[in-house]
Amino acid sequence: MVNIVGGDSVDIKHFPYQVAIIKLEKLWCSGSIISQAFTLTAAHCVIYASSPLTIHAGTTFWAKPGSVHQVDRNITYGFEKYTDVAILHVIEPFIFDETRRAIPLFKIEDTIKVGTMAIVSGWGITETGELSDNLRAVEVPIVDRQACNISYSGIISDSELCAGSTGKDSCTYDSGGPLVIDGRQAGIVSMGSGCGGPIYRGIYADIAFFSEWITRQLSNNAAHCVLETLDISLIIHAGTSFWAKPGSIHHVESSTTYGASENVDVAVLRVTEPFVFDKKRQPIRLSPSGGVIKPFTIATVVGWGSTEKFEVSDVLLAVDVPIIDRRLCNISYHGNIAISEICAGSTHKDSCRGDSGGPLLVKGIQIGIISTGIGCGLTAFPGIYADVSYFHDWIMQQIYP
């Protein structure tokens, strides 16, 4: 495992994304909160863990958790050389406050100049050779990859970053922790040779390189809204512009999914308390079976998901997006868009994290269900939606069995 050398003690309120990963009640690795259900860490923290992992969040002191979260599954990019990235799913969602907050991630188009100062944080071994009880952080410069490769005999790949200086570095037990630039996570503590020595710099997984994969895991599929919460009761807030201030509350008593394999991301929820229709609660008309939407048709997508500020919106937001020709969309997505899916979006106009399952509308008719995509608002990658017309008959069978 890798730790902070040459750093200072810091308060979790300044690093609310930081979490400690615990194995057998001892510090094992670090990680970062990237959504209410997921934590980012290094693959080797998962591969080498022979016991269940627990996450301590919302705390400056790793052994005194503000909240405890059990890890129920993990997703690794693969732990081969140069692919030291993993995502952990927690059973108990993170409740965001001043000590727990998701960190925005670098995107595929982001580049980092040599010499840029970054911050790495963790509870790992310090100059004294002991673990730190208190969260620590140190500022380190990004190092030229070619220069870093001279020290490491050419093993540093395009999927990795080098950072550090003499006496300032991550170290043992900092593995999986975040390397942050201007408030966004640029890297994941991976490995190195020694800690803060004069020759070898710390090696980090490059978030920008893995950003598309990370995004796919977070927004994998809208049946995923149901399937990923099978052990947690779902509640619906209706009749409100503000998601946290419901006009009415409805408990979900059952769910039916078409399936959660690729390209079939649709689910129907049945509530215990029926909706009472008024000016704030009304059923929406669905696109009929066989309905066709022409490319360039302007549609509207609605939700409370992440905005340009990388934060969930308190108030309901809507944006107009053009329908994209499926053939063009398939060029970007390497042929993975099925006839059961619709593509829509443009640069800086898109659905995003937290919008999954929401409606795509044309003239008051729901034509799509927010499903997945790469990034949010990227020119080359429009959002992907389940095509309501394709699933129309199945939906009707669930409503009127």
Structure keywords:
401 residues; six-stranded antiparallel beta barrel; 6 helices; 12% helix; disulfide bond; hydrolase; Trypsin epsilon-like
Give the helix proportion (percent range): 10-25%
Content-based structural category: mainly beta
Q: What Rg do the Cα atoms give?
A: 23 Å
Secondary structure tally: strands: 23
Written description of the protein model:
By secondary structure, the protein is mainly β. The protein contains six helices and 23 strands. The protein has helices at residues 43-47, 145-151, 207-218, 223-227, 326-332, 388-399, and strands at 8-9, 18-23, 26-33, 38-41, 53-57, 67-76, 86-90, 117-122, 136-143, 160-163, 178-181, 184-191, 202-206, 235-238, 248-259, 266-271, 285-286, 298-303, 317-324, 341-344, 359-362, 365-372, 383-387. It has a six-stranded antiparallel β-barrel with strand order 8-9-10-13-12-11. A six-stranded antiparallel barrel has the order 2-3-4-7-6-5. A six-stranded antiparallel beta barrel has the order 18-19-20-23-22-21. It starts with 7 loop residues before the first strand and ends with a helix. Residues 1-5 have low confidence and may be disordered.
Put the structure in a nutshell.
The protein has 401 residues and is mainly beta. 12% of the residues lie in helices and 33% in strands.
Outline the fold blueprint.
Layout: E1 8-9, E2 18-23, E3 26-33, E4 38-41, H1 43-47, E5 53-57, E6 67-76, E7 86-90, E8 117-122, E9 136-143, H2 145-151, E10 160-163, E11 178-181, E12 184-191, E13 202-206, H3 207-218, H4 223-227, E14 235-238, E15 248-259, E16 266-271, E17 285-286, E18 298-303, E19 317-324, H5 326-332, E20 341-344, E21 359-362, E22 365-372, E23 383-387, H6 388-399
Parallel strand pairs: 17-22
Antiparallel strand pairs: 1-9, 2-3, 2-5, 3-4, 4-7, 5-6, 6-7, 8-9, 8-11, 9-10, 10-13, 11-12, 12-13, 14-15, 15-16, 18-19, 18-21, 19-20, 20-23, 21-22, 22-23
Main location: secreted
Family: Belongs to the peptidase S1 family.
Protein name: Trypsin epsilon-like
